[in-house]
Amino acid sequence: MIGGFSTPKKGKGLKISGGQQVKAGQILAKGLSQYKAGTNVKGQGNLIALAAGKVYFTKKKTPHGRFRTFINITPHTEKHKK
To answer: What's the CA gap between 28 and 46, in Å, rounded?
Structure first.
């Protein structure tokens, strides 16, 4: 880091928290293996929202006894006004 040529990586991490509103295509987590894709989310290392809505987390136990945290999205229900 001497001379400003090398900077520490800041890209990895959880980009969103529970209860927040997200847009379709928004990145939810980058480079984290402890979070898995749930409903309306795709990806393995980089989790991406497939639909706009509210984020929530769930935990499930694997057959091997480990807990996995899943990132899910409840999609918006749009009401048509006349």
So the answer is: 7
Question: pLDDT tens across 42-55, in order?
Answer: 998 899 999 999 99
**pLDDT tens column, 2-57:** 666 676 667 888 999 999 999 999 999 998 888 999 999 999 889 999 999 999 99
Q: What is the pTM of this model?
A: 0.77
Question: How many angstroms separate the CA atoms of 19 and 50, rounded?
Answer: 16
Cβ pair 69, 76 in contact under 8 A: no
Q: In which region does residue 3 sit, left (phi positive, over 0), alpha (psi from -120 to 50) or beta (all else)?
A: left
Burial class (CB in 10 A: 0-12, 13-18, 19+), 81: exposed
3-class secondary structure, 23: coil
**Residue 61, amino acid:** K
